[in-house]
Design brief:
The protein is an alpha/beta fold. It has seven helices and ten strands. It binds S-adenosylmethionine. S-adenosylmethionine (SAM) is lined by residues 11-12, 110-112, 115-117, 143-144, 185-186, 205-210, 242-244. GO terms for molecular function: precorrin-6A synthase (deacetylating) activity.
């Protein structure tokens, strides 16, 4: 039966990959590589670098596919559902066309596949649909959240306290009131800069693990302008920027 491997490859540093992931890379006959346009071509290069470094033989193929883009109407959930359906159709065609019955295809997922990535959900839907039969495995990876904590030498949670992981879009709707520590991902709009509580502590990182990595931390009101500058610098240097940050209330 066809096999699909969803391999977490870490969030930028090619050394942050597990032995299990390296073994999985070497089982794949075909790598499905998304082509997400110019800005994301830096990410594509990172994925290819990982393959270069860890693949032991040349007995594999790379198949690029165009990722459909998401409509941006006020109905975010409907847009995402339609977008996922379009990606599912793309994946289904790829599996049928590019893999023989006994071959193995792989997706290299940025960070960990369990955190803000749709690959797992889409593959699960196709598996249940059964139009193309296959089995699949998930190989965990080091997420950008773990990489952030390591770079700042911090624990994400305070002793015995919870951690809330959310997106920039959700943070703009409201700051979770009962969360001591909040990790924010997918924030292309610098939502931290608009928060009322400037006494929050922030631990921020962009393109962590990549050559252009930038880090900053401190009282939000004191460092937010510096973070905006660093963010722009990273984007100019790399051609893309992804950032993640932890916000927490100061210790009393
Ligand atoms: C689509 S999500 C994927 C998250 C990924 N699955 C993970 O485990 O980190 C993309 C978001 O992850 C964060 N991210 C991923 N790689 C990053 C990096 N190297 N540095 C900073 N943030 C990163 C950013 O918040 C970005 O908007």
């Amino acid at each position: 039966m066809r096999k699909i491997l969803i391999i977490g490859v870490g969030a930028g540093d090619p050394a942050q990959i597990t032995i299990q992931a390296i073994e999985a890379l070497n089982r794949a006959d075909v790598f499905f590589i998304p082509d997400k346009g110019a800005e994301k071509s830096g990410l594509r290069q990172q994925r290819l670098k990982i393959c270069d470094r860890y693949l032991k033989s040349a007995a594999h193929r790379f198949v690029e596919y165009k990722t459909p883009s998401r409509a941006k109407t006020p109905d975010y959930k409907a847009d995402v559902a339609a977008w996922h359906e379009a990606i599912a159709a793309t994946f289904e065609a790829l599996f049928a066309r590019e893999l023989t019955e006994d071959q193995c295809g792989a997706f290299l997922v940025w960070g960990d596949p369990a955190l803000y990535d749709s690959t797992l959900r889409i593959v699960e839907t196709l598996h249940a649909r059964g139009a193309v039969t296959f089995d699949y495995e998930i190989i965990p990876g080091i997420s950008s959240v773990q990489a952030l904590a390591a770079q700042h030498k911090i624990a994400l949670n305070r002793i015995g306290e919870p951690v809330h992981i959310t997106t920039g879009r959700k943070l703009r709707e409201n700051v979770p009131e009962n969360a001591d520590s909040v990790v924010v991902m997918l924030d292309g709009e610098e939502s931290f800069a608009a928060l009322d509580d400037e006494d929050l502590e922030i631990f921020w990182g962009a393109n962590i693990g990549c050559p252009e990595q930038a880090l900053a931390s401190g009282r939000l009101g004191d460092v937010k302008d510096r973070i905006k500058e660093l963010r722009a610098k990273v984007r100019a240097a790399a051609g893309w920027v992804m950032d993640v940050y932890l916000l927490r209330k100061p210790m009393r």
